[in-house]
Design brief:
binds zinc ion, single chain, two-stranded antiparallel sheet, 5% strand, 2 strands, mainly alpha
């Protein structure tokens, strides 16, 4: 699912499919709540492993919560040219 589709609320998630009349229910298959973009990205237990993999990757590239508000380049190649702390 592309970011632009999520941003425009043009996805195949059940909440939006229900809104456009192509799905009987807005509820996610996990049974927690409506299948919205926020639920899909942040809360749904069906995607826990994929979400954790994404968060690990974000932390690995230095954009995680410990660097909130900062762009960090720890490698020597970039450290001399990019440091926004
Ligand atoms: Zn769910």
């Amino acid at each position: 699912m592309s970011y632009s589709r999520m941003f425009l609320h043009d996805t195949h998630l059940k909440y939006e499919s229900h809104r456009t009349g192509t799905c009987d229910t807005p509820q996610c298959d996990c049974g927690m709540t409506a299948d919205t973009v926020e639920h899909f990205l942040i809360h749904c237990c069906k995607y826990y492993n994929e979400r954790q993999e994404m968060l690990d990757f974000i932390n690995d590239i230095g954009c995680g919560s410990k660097y909130k508000g900062c762009l960090v380049a720890d490698t020597p190649r970039w450290a001399s040219t990019v440091t926004f702390r």
